[in-house]
Amino acid sequence: MEEARRQVQRQLELIDRQITRRAAALVPHQRKRHGDRRGKSSDVCMVLERYRLTLAALTAERQPEIDALSRKLARQDQAIAAHHERQQIALSRAA
After folding, report:
1. How far is CA 20 from the centre of its chain?
2. Residues 66, 59: contact at Cβ < 8 Å?
3. Kind and range of the H or E run holding 36
4. Average pLDDT over residues 86-94
C-alpha cells in the first residue's frame, strides 16, 4: 500500500519536472549584452512573466491528470492512516 503511494507521488513529481523543463525550454533565455545595461530590469521581468504564463498554460493542460493523481494520493493516505490506526488498536488490545 505504501509502495503504491510512493509510486503515485513519484508520478506527480515527474509531471512537475516535465512541466518545469518544458516551460524553461519554451521561454528563450535572455542573451547577455556587454556594455548595454539599459532596459535590463524590464527584459528580465518580461522573460519571467513569459515563463510564468507558459508554466501556467502547461500546468492547465495537465491539470486533469494532476487532479486525478492528487485524489488517488489522498485516498491512499487515508487508507494507510486507517490501516495504521487498526494496527494500533489491535496492539493495544493484545497488550
Report:
1. 9
2. yes
3. none
4. 90
DSSP, collapsed to helix, strand or coil, labels residue 41 as helix
Each residue's pLDDT tens digit, 75-85: 999 999 999 99
The 3-state DSSP class for residue 90 equals helix
Nearest to 5 by CA among 13, 91, 16: 13
Q: What is the mean pLDDT of residues 58-84?
A: 97
Q: Residue 93's closest CA among 57, 80, 19, 85?
A: 85
Longest dimension (CA), the chain: 77
Query: What is the Cα–Cα distance from 68 to 42, expressed in whole angstroms?
Result: 39
- The mean pLDDT of 49-57, rounded to a whole number, is 95
Split at pLDDT 50, 70, 90, the class of 36 is low
Q: How far is CA 34 from CA 40, 57, 62, in A?
A: 11, 33, 39
Q: Which of 60, 49, 50, 55 is nearest to 17 (CA)?
A: 55
